[in-house]
């Protein structure tokens, strides 16, 4: 089947679906499924806009609300993960995943589903070490801290995914797995995004949690977004035994959804012809959720997942074939995800703007039904209970508890990861893309015309094959660079030159207004990007 993959959507659903329809008209290419790798921006109304971690001047309604209201319907089944520019209050209603609009499905904090026999997993958010070991404690109305921490990846989601044993076909993350840049055309990446150099050379660009999952899951495909640049890599994994067949992952990072940008990729994926056209639950994933339900935590305090270190009676929460069979029997072998989308908030009305509406913490009926069906904890219900219990204890006691949580969950708390870089350079440690001289060329090591006149060929995107060590350690830069130089000389790597006049008229920005940032002035490539100087300093 044909699968379309998109990078950061930033709420431009009309543009994304129009591009797919144009491909169909011109080339008779109709994808069966659309995957979006975060920054989807499922914004329903003005309250949702206030829950999105972007400067006020970049809070635009865009077009999702038309799909939420039923005015429009997605022409293709769409599955997405969350990024770091989302209506966090909306996505928080669906921690285990669910429909945000008819035919548009969110995978939740982490999730695995099936479509036509293809197993698709993903993890939402970006990595920050100071929040990684906390529970999901945030709820609207958010403050300046929780509006950001709400989209930070948590260790419990990574732990759940690491319990999976069955093969994954496709996996999505918003930020890149750390070290993945060493398995593609690194020279070309640094040529176009030179401000990544420090993190690339120190091997701190990207998410260590995502690298851990890549090492464990070894999916056939891994798609990411976040850095607003197209980049491909091909990675062979080490085998654990002589009997184990070698596995490889095709990695592709997508650009953001803007005109004249190559933000979509079409791939052909082997599927089960006998499978239906409905999105389905994954039985092993449901079994893992049931097995790890006791680990649910909504505390702000930092905590570790069970390990085989002598401190935990149980550390292996992977599930047996019998447990998977029990899930199938509970569902009468009908894994179809019910189309139970429900409106849980008023929809934006352009004729009646509601600028002063406040976001509220909502329990979504989809989550209630899902938890009741499988005997799981409703995280949002648990958060509300915790808030109520805190108010009963009294203000003084609550303050003491908060101080204790702060002391155990601060950025100074030791972490299993020694850095909190989420995948961006020191110039912009939270997704804001600032380009230096030159155009935003295609870094996929192949020549791809981004226009619908030339449908992309995913198979040509991969050329550099490397062995991925268990520790994610890489060989010397000299060895990596020499390999890439050979690729470039062979003509395998070509860049797509963008000649849009709008891309040439760039706004020059610098550090802070006092001129004491020590960062040289660089040009802004994305004029509609979600960025502000204070954002650069805080995240």
TrEMBL record:
Does the UniProt entry include the keyword Nucleus?
yes
A single GO CC term for this protein reads: nucleus
- SMART domains named among the record's database cross-references: DBR1 (SM01124)
Checking InterPro entries in the record gives: Calcineurin-like_PHP, DBR1_C, Dbr1_N, Metallo-depent_PP-like
- Looking at the record, which segments are called Disordered? 387-462, 474-539
Which UniProt keywords are given for this protein, alphabetically ordered?
Hydrolase, Iron, Manganese, Metal-binding, mRNA processing, Nucleus, Zinc
Biased-composition ranges, Polar residues, are 416-428
Q: Name one GO molecular function term.
A: RNA lariat debranching enzyme activity
- Domain (Lariat debranching enzyme C-terminal): residue spans on this chain: 235-380
Chief localisation class: nucleus
UniProt cofactor(s): Fe(2+); Zn(2+); Mn(2+)
Q: Which GO terms describe its biological process?
A: mRNA splicing, via spliceosome
Q: Which Pfam families match?
A: DBR1, Metallophos
Output compositional bias ranges, type Acidic residues. Answer: 397-406, 432-443
In what ranges is there compositional bias, type Basic and acidic residues?
Answer: 387-396, 486-506
Compartments (UniProt record): Nucleus
Family to which the UniProt record says this protein belongs: Belongs to the lariat debranching enzyme family.
In Swiss-Prot or TrEMBL terms, this protein is called DBR1 enzyme
Natural source organism: Glareola pratincola (Collared pratincole)
- What's the name of its gene? Dbr1
